[in-house]
Predict the structure.
Amino acid sequence: MQFAQRLQPLQSNVFADMDIAKAKALATGRQLIDLSLGSSDLPAEAHVIDAISQSLQDKSTHGYLLFHGTQEFRQAAAQWYETKFGIPVNPETEVLPLIGSQEGTAHLPLAVLNPGDFALLLDPGYPSHAGGVYLASGQIYPMSLRAENGFLPVFADIPTDVLAQSRMMVLSYPHNPTSAIAPLSFFQEAVSFCQQHNIVLVHDFPYVDLLFEDAQAPSILQADVDKSVSIEFFTLSKSYNMGGFRIGYAIGNAEIIRALRQIKAVIDFNQYRGILNGAIAALSGSQAGVKNNITTFRKRRDAFINALDRIGWHVPTPQATMYIWAKLPEPWSQNSIGFCTQLVEKTGVAASPGAGFGKCGEGYVRFALVHEPHVLQTAVERIAKFLSGNTKK
């Protein structure tokens, strides 16, 4: 049986390999502490669950939901954005509901790229950004992120011949996996660059609210107020603990929104209306839960960083996200997959290898802060034993 060539780049997946390693650890009786996935362990707020629960009793919500039936949700998303960033949004032409922001980043290349066109992606970056480009038969130019540049790409490094074939650029700040934040001046540079080269500018913005202390995370549309080249993806997975509900949305340039809507129309309808009702409750209701999330992840960040310090593994304190991006110590500095595989097999602590996020991620490991502080401290104690060689298979 023959399959499409576009599947070839999707064959390798280090996260699937990590799943195998986790299964082996469980099979040997290890107690797993899984820090490899950015899936919040916190619950959705009660008023969100109530809105969904009430919808279940309404039989009018049980049918297909087409675009015009999402109007109330689009209005809530537009109002949320205007309140937060002060930029007017037309809910009819500049907002599109999505089944999680990953749907948007994966499907947009189908609307933007012709076969052979380049997408400019962050390296390291979120894996689904690359997957969508491969499915559209596009090419990827990885924009290297280095610590010395604040994990921001240098646009001047992009070769001229690549730029001539580039049709989209994908950014994402606060950044997964590095947790870096981009200032508004960087986004202004990105907008100007994409306007100059006729490139669609995509900003994946799942960590819009997960900021600590006085850190700020601007919207790409604050640098592109006229929405000339930009689209921004949002999700309720992180701020509202609704990852399993699969609800997100896009805001941006009306032509880009229309093109993505055309792709979406031939692939799916929308979520169950009750899910959208829950999302409306989240966006328009009390934001106390969002503030509690921020406090929770800040405490977890501090507990984990302090525990690492105590074992001699010194890592910069991130200002955003739910991750710790840690440079690996010797002898693991160029073997993140080996480190993570052996760590989970010998201790039950699962982490994500930096190499899984791109070539420039090698030498790092990502820890997701998805457990209470005492569990995170236990994880670090196990890591310390592993690094000292005192673990047993």
